[in-house]
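User: Study the chain.
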Amino acid sequence: MKNAQTPQLPVKPLLVSSVTTLKVVARKLPKKLPVLLLGFIFSTIISLHNPLSAQRTQKSNENVVNIYSYRQEFLIRPLLDAFTKKTGIDTRVVFLKKGMLERLKSEGRNSPADVVLTVDVSRFRDLKEAGVLQKIRSGTVNRNIPTKYRDPEGMWIALTTRARIIYASEERVKDGEILTYEELADPKWRGRICTRSGYHVYNIALITSLIAHHGEQATEKWLTGLKNNLARKPQGNDRAQVKAIKEGLCDISIGNSYYYGKMLFNDKNPEQKAWAKSVKLIFPNQANRGTHMNISGAALTRYAPHKKNAIKFIDYLSSDEAQFIYGEVNFEFPVKSSVNKPSKIKELASNFKEDNLPLQEIMDNYKKAVILLDKVKFDEL
């Protein structure tokens, strides 16, 4: 069965046109029209511009599953095609790198979304706390996904993991010269480290793990040392830091492991291959607790209009086949130990020791990490 094309939702033009329409309508209405009624009119206009929202009014037994995805569709298309081939259920995807939570909250019961695919445990925490998810009731999922990679209340599951690693210059950093996260604060690296904003969720998760292992006081001292070692003000994304190493602006950076694969096998932007080849990958703390890990995963939306299909989709995501495909396409590690590591992943890392810190502890320390970043003024140089 052929998949439907992804609805393209130009957010800014949508809002501009909707606001313009609202102004025109407002001029023709009595001046004392209640504010709530105006709000209702505005929300109605917005929903009329949203293709998937319109589809919400169709029969709930439609053979489709609607997906809000943090990842662009081409990154998960092989997975979606395999699911449709196996089940006959079509997929529709809306790419929402920003504003997913806000959109789900504003749509409420009228949301067309059945499943959300996103990354980082903190984002799942936010979705759960906002009340936009419902429990995934599936024996298949419970059998396939290890307990440590499932929300205790069943609101989300992890599909793959990624490591927060150290990228080091092949030319300027000797083998074994840095082996732990703690060493990033060593004065020997003064002016030699690059990183993205400390407030990005990837870095906050790493900081929360350090709080869990060492306490807030020691982590504050570590953050201060790391800040003192920065070569420039925190900026850009993880790939931009590797580029900076290639250009000689710094010698070390912190980044997610999968970015190495995205650079090394990047035929669309071949200059990134040179960035990747300029660095070595260091999986920190192998001699003790292991490397900090985070997740990408899936959740069932609270008002999923195609709930049965959504459960089938999540069941499929937990399968060996899907785990392999998802890992291969995104250069991540399947959460199921029984699944063979995809071929490209094997080129990135052999077996390494993972930090088994419970995901819940990462979530619990999130606010503490932000307070410490504020305290040391991490992003200010």
Q: What stands out?
A: Residues 101 and 127 are 6 Å apart (CA to CA). Residues 1-49 have pLDDT under 50 and may be disordered. The beta strands are 64-69, 90-95, 115-119, 133-134, 156-169, 193-194, 252-256, 279-282, 293-301, 333-334.
